[in-house]
């Protein structure tokens, strides 16, 4: 049986290694990771971030394939389409559809932040939940959307039942099941505001909210509760075999609940900051999580073992333990250093010092950068990270990321001078 995840209520630092192997942490965003999605074949991961971007990652190499930049504010929710397309929803209320080449097309705009996305079974309709108090069912062909109104306050999550009906969860402490055609929703009241939602292939509904409890509505209409953590739940995901419910909390914990027994099987703690997003790999069943510390982590959901480059036995090029190498770790997902490594989501940094902005061979720069009169030197690169890319180079594709400590910037410049010649 299959579960459809309908909510990710809301990027990364990094390691001192340049080439990320399979099963390593993914690092490169400049803000909290608000949303995650994994492709059906497990080859790609899409993340949305507080830094206003979404990043499409190559699962095997850990490299950023594309940085998607169209939103004015944080990207709160993401979805992957068949054929390589993508959908993002943002704090700016916008819905954006991207083709496989990363070209955006605006699909519409809510009057408040978009908190959650879900795709219909045929991938022709995107459902969006918004803090404007509504949800929408928007055809991807651009035809008129259907508005779902009735919630009293933020709509935080949306998903589809197997029969095509939409389900929403809101801060008004209700679940609502919407008919296929216009008409009033079936309203299911619970005892707490709801943040996250998931639906199984047999139509079982799982919701969670501010009191840390999972609420499971079975096919006979009964509502069961499972107690996990006393703090708010921020995201839900279900294993491909539907045996495990993963529940993330604002304290950084992840709870793995056995669906059959309703008991907590494992508790994972990967960070001290909130975990905002969860996604299972549909193939191998491993669990990905992203949150406030800007890192996407991975676990073996069966054992709770943390999957990382050491435990996975991968060999990578080690740049040593210098402070500059550690600071560069935040850049490694998008940039290479050596002459033969080529471009990633960002241009290669080989030969950067003395090079005019927007001139690295083979890289498709933003039009805004091509006309700028900047030559990269240790001083100009340091200033870029002091004030932030959006301020220093307006119109850039680069995720917003600052290095506020002068000593860290100096260490990075020393590292780059040595490694980019």
Automatic annotation (TrEMBL):
<keyword id="KW-0349">Heme</keyword>
<dbReference type="InterPro" id="IPR009056">
    <property type="entry name" value="Cyt_c-like_dom"/>
</dbReference>
<keyword id="KW-0853">WD repeat</keyword>
<dbReference type="InterPro" id="IPR036322">
    <property type="entry name" value="WD40_repeat_dom_sf"/>
</dbReference>
<feature type="repeat" description="WD">
    <location>
        <begin position="268"/>
        <end position="309"/>
    </location>
</feature>
<keyword id="KW-0408">Iron</keyword>
<dbReference type="GO" id="GO:0020037">
    <property type="term" value="F:heme binding"/>
</dbReference>
<keyword id="KW-0479">Metal-binding</keyword>
<keyword id="KW-0249">Electron transport</keyword>
<dbReference type="Pfam" id="PF00034">
    <property type="entry name" value="Cytochrom_C"/>
</dbReference>
<keyword id="KW-0813">Transport</keyword>
<dbReference type="Pfam" id="PF00400">
    <property type="entry name" value="WD40"/>
</dbReference>
<dbReference type="InterPro" id="IPR001680">
    <property type="entry name" value="WD40_rpt"/>
</dbReference>
<dbReference type="InterPro" id="IPR036909">
    <property type="entry name" value="Cyt_c-like_dom_sf"/>
</dbReference>
<feature type="repeat" description="WD">
    <location>
        <begin position="26"/>
        <end position="67"/>
    </location>
</feature>
<feature type="domain" description="Cytochrome c">
    <location>
        <begin position="319"/>
        <end position="420"/>
    </location>
</feature>
<dbReference type="InterPro" id="IPR015943">
    <property type="entry name" value="WD40/YVTN_repeat-like_dom_sf"/>
</dbReference>
<keyword id="KW-0677">Repeat</keyword>
<feature type="repeat" description="WD">
    <location>
        <begin position="68"/>
        <end position="99"/>
    </location>
</feature>
<dbReference type="GO" id="GO:0009055">
    <property type="term" value="F:electron transfer activity"/>
</dbReference>
<dbReference type="InterPro" id="IPR002327">
    <property type="entry name" value="Cyt_c_1A/1B"/>
</dbReference>
<feature type="signal peptide">
    <location>
        <begin position="1"/>
        <end position="24"/>
    </location>
</feature>
<protein>
    <recommendedName>
        <fullName>Cytochrome c domain-containing protein</fullName>
    </recommendedName>
</protein>
<dbReference type="GO" id="GO:0046872">
    <property type="term" value="F:metal ion binding"/>
</dbReference>
<feature type="repeat" description="WD">
    <location>
        <begin position="148"/>
        <end position="188"/>
    </location>
</feature>
<keyword id="KW-0732">Signal</keyword>
């Amino acid at each position: 049986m299959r579960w459809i995840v309908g909510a990710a209520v809301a990027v990364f630092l990094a390691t001192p290694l340049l080439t990320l192997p399979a099963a390593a942490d993914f690092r490169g965003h400049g803000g909290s990771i608000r949303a995650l999605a994994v492709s059906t074949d497990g080859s790609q991961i899409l993340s949305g971030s507080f830094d206003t971007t979404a990043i499409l990652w190559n699962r095997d190499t850990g490299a950023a394939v594309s940085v998607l930049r169209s939103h004015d504010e944080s990207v709160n929710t993401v979805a992957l389409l068949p054929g390589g397309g993508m959908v993002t929803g943002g704090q700016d209320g916008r819905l954006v559809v991207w083709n496989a080449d990363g070209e955006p097309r605006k699909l519409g705009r809510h009057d408040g932040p978009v908190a959650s996305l879900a795709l219909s079974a045929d991938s022709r309709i995107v459902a969006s939940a918004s803090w404007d108090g509504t949800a929408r069912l928007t055809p991807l062909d651009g035809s008129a959307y259907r508005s779902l109104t009735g919630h009293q306050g933020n709509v935080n999550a949306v998903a589809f039942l197997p029969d095509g009906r939409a389900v929403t969860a809101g801060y008004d402490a209700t679940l609502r099941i919407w008919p296929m055609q216009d008409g009033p929703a079936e309203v299911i009241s619970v005892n707490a505001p709801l943040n996250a939602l998931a639906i199984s292939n047999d139509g079982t509904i799982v919701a969670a909210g501010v009191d840390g409890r999972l609420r499971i509505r079975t096919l006979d209409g009964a509502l069961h509760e499972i107690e996990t953590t006393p703090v708010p739940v921020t995201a839900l995901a279900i294993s491909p075999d539907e045996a495990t419910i993963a529940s993330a909390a604002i304290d950084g914990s992840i709870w793995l609940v056995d669906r059959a027994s309703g008991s907590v099987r494992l508790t994972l703690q990967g960070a001290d900051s909130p975990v905002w997003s969860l996604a299972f790999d549909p193939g191998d069943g491993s669990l990905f999580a992203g949150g406030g510390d800007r890192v996407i982590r991975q676990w073996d959901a069966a054992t709770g073992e943390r999957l990382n480059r050491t435990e996975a036995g991968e060999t990578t090029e080690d740049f040593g333990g210098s402070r500059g190498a550690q600071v560069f770790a935040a850049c490694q997902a998008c940039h290479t250093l050596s002459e033969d490594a080529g471009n990633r989501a960002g241009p290669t940094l080989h030969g950067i010092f003395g090079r005019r902005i927007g001139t690295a061979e083979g890289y498709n720069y933003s039009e805004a950068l091509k006309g700028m009169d900047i030559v990269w030197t240790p001083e100009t690169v340091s200033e870029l990270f002091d004030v932030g890319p959006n301020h220093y180079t307006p119109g850039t594709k680069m995720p917003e990321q600052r290095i506020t400590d002068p000593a860290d910037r100096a260490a990075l410049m020393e590292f780059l001078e040595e490694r980019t010649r």
